[in-house]
Amino acid sequence: MSEFIIANFVPLLFAGLFVFLLSGFPVAFSLAAVGLAFGLLGMELGLFPQALFQALPLRIAGIMQNDTLLAIPFFTFMGIILERSGMAEDLLETVGQVFGPVRGGIAIAVVLVGALLAATTGVVAAAVISMGLISLPIMLRYGYNRSIATGTITASGTLAQALPPSLVLIVLADQMGRSVGDMYEGALLPGLMLVGFYLIFIVAIAITRPTWVPALPAEARIYREENGASGHKSLLILLLVAGAIGFAWSRVHESIMNPLLKRTFPAPGDEVFIMSMTVASLVALALALANKLFKLHLISRLAQQVTFVLIPPLVLIFLVLGTIFLGVATPTEGGAMGALGALIMAAAKRKLKLPMLKQALDSTAKLACFVLFILIGSTVFSFTFNAADGHKWVEHLFDALPGGAWGFLIVVNLLIFVLGFFIDFFEIAFIVIPILAPVAEKTLTELMPGVPASALMIWFGVIIAMNLQTSFLTPPFGFALFYLRSVAARVDYKDRVTGAMIPAVTTGQIYKGSIAFIVLQICMVAVVMLYPGLVINNIDTVPRVDPNQVLIPPADSSPAGGAQDDVMKLFEQKRQQAEDAAEKKFNAPTQDSPGAAPSGAPSEDKKDDDPAKALMEAIKRDAGK
Q1: Is the confidence at residue 82, as pLDDT, over 60?
Q2: Contact, 383 vs 37, CB < 8 A?
Q3: HSE-up of 331 (CA within 13 Å, CB side)?
């Protein structure tokens, strides 16, 4: 029996964890219990030293001192304050009025607001529930296809997994030992491309199936000018002015920011984009404020409402991401600034009340404790896993896969995809990623030999984040589907505006609506896998120097080149002599054994013990000739 346990220790370790998770025991305590139980079992069997868990208290203290994890409560608090202050309602109403006159306008508004909520709240549940409560009744009221309506809401809510400042990206970066700022930079372009995919799909539906996504009727458009105009022309002019100023800033960004930051290299593209958008947003807000304060009547009611509702959260997002991308603030400091900005915005709207503040602090503390307990449990589990050489067992699992690195990527994505049905992304990040990350770092270098391992791991992390987003949508276990099911009408109800009876939303309609967006997300995962430059080219990579190549001289037929070759030959000769001398000393008899040389006697190979000194002497001799 002991031999069987020793031979199959790692598989039994995972089987024990699986049994605990199926029993419904909390994940954090399941991880810790399995790690401790199997660690003690390994000690009894002689697999592990008795001092296996002596360093565990220090490791737990290190978790508590991890500054990166502080970003989680800061961004969570920021999102909860913005959500409780009515930002989602204001955004959906205002953006819906902007795009309402066109077919599919409400769905487009849902996607754009979903992206904004993703970048502010960072929590899927908050985004899906908010849009389900606000947008779904409006879409059903005006005759939207139910599958398109439910699919748009659930898919837009899951953008919180992939768009910075996502909590998923923070946790993945921490578990992979990478920079959160680099993870944000790598995920920005793929996340925006996915938003573009959603918008293109809705536009295509509006063209091919116009009855599925009708326009907002005229009586539902609440912002009108005195002459009956909608105000869209004024909004367009304001956008053009702000956009022109933002573009002008992008042309002079380096000349202004590089001296301030004492930087000599070119500014990254994502930094220029974020800062240009920040400047454009601030200009639009300043113009709207001047128009209202001085009663200039230069912009329409719609343009003014859009500016006051849309620009403040945009500026907050851009300032948070901009300071991180500029390197002025760490993600933790950026999260703290975002939390402060959310409090200021809530106070400006007169929504900052003591009960709301208590609820936000309570929810933030619960989530932070949840994350920390899972991390502590996974640390205990990893002690036993690493002591049993579990990483080697995992490597051997992937050795026989066909396709090499591509086979590894495909299998890992399928594994993450399936696990996403059953467990939360925090658990996946803390359990699965530490196991797969060392294997990925070794395997992925085969795909792009010249790319730094840090950039490849950022690419791998973005793929995992996109994959987790897909698993949130997949029937029958997708979490986003359950979030919408919890707020969608289960019985027929009478609409409060039109007075018509609206049929209930069925679970089948919610499942059916997610299929098209799942396909879009899988396509986006495939695009990121096939085109790593979408991630890697946006990361500030520091040039790596291969120490094995430092002393290799360039090929040269000149006498100087010949002298360099002689120096290199002499260096190799001396290095070999030093290795031989060290080997002799290692194999030599000890002082207590017969024939041992006195400890004070000079060694015959003493002169060869310092190859660097011999090399410098040879260079001096060559220079004197």
Answers
A1: yes
A2: no
A3: 27
